[in-house]
Amino acid sequence: ILNAITPIDDSYQNSTGDTVGGDFSVFYTSGKMASQGNYSELYQADTFATEREKIFSPLDRAILYFNYPPTALLLFSPLSKLPYMFAYGLWVILLLTGTGLTIYAFTKNRIITAAALLSPAFLWCINTGQLGFLVTMLMGLGLYMLNRGNKMTAGMLFGLLIIKPHLALALPICMIATKEWRVIFGGIFSASLAMLMSLFIFGPEAWTALATQLTSNVTGHLNANGNIADRIPTIFVTLMHLTDNKTLAAILHSIGALVAIGTTVYIWRNSSDTTARLITLFVVPALISPYYFDYDLTGIGLIFALMMAEASKKEPRKFDLIALTGLWTITIFMLIGKINFVFTGPIFLLALLYYATIRATKSPTAQQSRNP
User: Fold this and answer.
1) Measuring CA to CA, which residue among 157, 97, 129 is closest to residue 24?
2) What is the separation of C-alpha 120 from the centre of its chain, rounded to a whole number of angstroms?
3) Is the Cβ–Cβ distance between 35 and 80 less than 8 Å?
4) Is residue 245's pLDDT more than 80?
5) Structure pTM?
6) What is the pLDDT of residues 295-316, one digit of tens each?
């Protein structure tokens, strides 16, 4: 990690030949372009790559694009006004601190919080500067506030996931299933406010450019080679590379998505188990959307922390220990960029969702609903 985040030249290249901060260099470049008013060119792959190479090493082995909605530019534009290494360091420190506070809010245990932050899932986020920390904070704090009865606040936190909307696909399912209308209203309010702010600051041309280029960029990732597929643990990408049959992959992915949605409804209606609910929030979007990268699963570090806290308070059940071991092991593959190693990513996701179902079935809430 230290080698990965230490530049060896003025183009921010590290000793392995990659740009320090990885994907954060994309965020930084997008902020620069937005500040200069280059909204339409921001989503053009060739133009964006050229602008990025003006700041970072042209020897960088990665070809990176900007696939985020203009709402994300509300974060990146201010950061781009700082020197790169200072912006990257500030970004990581703030999000690492916020994630630590989120974990502590659930566990009330400093040692477990520190251990969780050393999870490979979080180390991967430090290395790449990705949004996994921020998503973990918003999703985690949103559920924390919901558990405390602060429903509008919970919804407003959830709504800020408009910066990466496909990561929030499970949220409307969960809130509708439990009839949390105030949460839904709070989410609509904060998401709409963020969109209006982006329209006011960056103009409609940014959104038009996104709509034009997003489909082709995402399609490029879904059709990418095995190295990229190793980082996309979705049913569609896995089956497409195993069978080379897009129609079959799409059909089976759709079936998997329906199963995930049905399981989510069951868990949220029948159990208030926090760990089971968090699993649905972080895992189910990867079973619904065909486009979902490994760093989008960073929130499993929070799930790991919750399970560790439970194990420290009472004797863990056998299936809890198995799940805890598997959870830690799979994050190691995330750290080396192969969470879909040998195309086993969907198996991991489905197994984790099955574990959440077992927890929901065994929870007191579920038992009470069966025995009124």
Assistant:
1) 129
2) 14
3) yes
4) yes
5) 0.89
6) 888 888 899 999 989 888 877 7
